[in-house]
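Hello,

Our lab assistant flagged a job as stuck in the queue for most of the afternoon. It eventually completed. Since we weren't sure the result was trustworthy after the delay, we are filing this so someone can double-check. Below is the sequence as submitted and the structure that was eventually returned. Let us know if re-running is recommended.
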Amino acid sequence: MNEDDFRDYASPPCFQHELEGAGFAGMDREYVLTRLDTLLEGERAGARGLRDTRADFGDGPLGELLAEVGRDEARFCAMLTRHIERLGGTPSRATGVFYEKLLSRPDPQARLRLLDRGQKAVVDMLDDLLGRTLDMELRRDLEEMREVHVQNIARCAAYLADDR
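-- returned structure --
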């Protein structure tokens, strides 16, 4: 093949934008739906657990932090449900085991440390998904979810550091 020859590729990357909303653009549908469901169950567990934890620890700075993180978790439940349905899946109605684990911790510091580990696990799962080919709408929402979780990890770590 010389430099004057033109090679016609089946799906050049410059046309990726045309696939938005058209399907999975190369991603493993079942794997992605399973991971989204796992994230949904975890976010639901976090939202419920943080709501119940806030009731245990009041309306001070810790209570407000937990409420804000819990609102983020609930918002991401809605987003994940929407994407699972949009991609042809049926969202899980289960609540992840994180809920029971969180409530079993007797003090706020132990709950925040567990929350921190849970948020880090979500970031790792999101990194895995973001390393795949995703449609632009899902990628954008998962990137935002990742950023919010990273921020919440930092906020909880700062509270724990100040509470020593």
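-- support follow-up --
The delay was a queue issue, not a problem with the job. The result is valid. Confidence is low (pLDDT under 50) at residues 6-22. The first helix runs from residue 29 to 57.
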